[in-house]
Write a structure and sequence with these properties.
With 263 residues, the chain is α/β, with parallel strands linked by helices.
């Protein structure tokens, strides 16, 4: 199968126009005319992911985080990003980043996280619309949980995301019903929307100290399940989509591991 067919499918699900201005989603490396028989799906296109793709006979690495994000001025080697690109080129690997455009897509990562957490009546938290196209998208989601205590909701988040520990801000509510979800790194630009919607709980990651204080001041009970913790679901869920759409392709999963270790 040609790479172009796979890319067309991905960009139909999550158009590149959905990505944030700072992002670098899309085809990072590769020839659209290349033949693909296997895809490795991962959160981060690190050296282990690339090595596994090579050993498993995959020609495409589909990562959530783009292999080149901040920009590279030299491919001389010696840093993580350039070393990965050099290895990929030497082994005819295509690299594709499916980042903030997929976060914001209708059935994208934010939606997937809501489904993992058993939320219903899911709607976009920060809704936007592409002028002239009428396509609605946006970061974050809000959904309804089966009413449960705050402690039970904390336990459920840990269980569903396979986490040993989470951080939280604010007083644990008596009952959790309305839940906001913002995967990856929390963006304090959504604070106004959160205040307007008044969720019983917010599940997010990468929460900074001053942003946490603002949430505390606004009375929003917030669970920080980590960047990795809230996005690792990408691997399994995206692999299922690809297996259903392209049953003739070999799909390999690589979840990797969190960069943080807790003592």
């Amino acid at each position: 199968m040609k790479l172009e067919k796979i890319v067309s499918f991905l960009e139909e699900l999550a158009p590149l126009l959905f990505q944030e201005h700072y992002d670098n989603s899309g085809l990072i490396l590769g020839d659209m005319d290349a033949d693909i028989s296997g895809i490795l799906v991962c959160l981060d296109a690190d050296e282990d992911a690339v090595d596994l793709a090579i050993s498993q006979g995959c020609q495409l690495v589909l990562s959530h985080h783009p292999a080149i994000f901040r920009g590279i001025k030299s491919f001389a080697g010696g840093n993580a990003e350039s070393d990965i690109i050099i290895k990929a080129i030497k082994n005819d690997l295509a690299l594709y980043g499916y980042h903030t455009n997929f976060d914001s897509a209708a059935d994208g990562l934010a939606f997937m996280l809501c489904r993992i957490l058993d939320l219903d009546n899911i709607r976009i938290l920060d809704e936007r619309c592409l002028p002239g196209l009428g396509l609605k998208y946006g970061a974050g989601r809000v959904g309804d949980a089966v009413p449960m205590s705050g402690e039970a909701f904390l336990d459920m988040v840990k269980t569903r995301l396979s986490l040993n520990v989470v951080r939280y801000v604010g007083e644990i509510p008596d009952v959790v019903m309305r839940v906001a979800v913002y995967n990856g790194a929390y963006d304090d630009g959504i604070l106004g929307k959160l205040k307007e919607l008044s969720p019983d709980a917010l599940v997010t990651g990468d929460l900074k100290y001053h942003a946490a204080r603002d949430l505390l001041h606004k009375g929003i009970f917030t669970i920080d399940a980590g960047h990795y913790g809230t996005e690792k679901v990408f691997v399994g869920e995206m692999a299922k989509i690809l297996e259903e759409r392209f049953p003739e392709l070999k799909i390999v999963r690589y979840t990797g591991k969190d960069v943080f270790t807790y003592y």
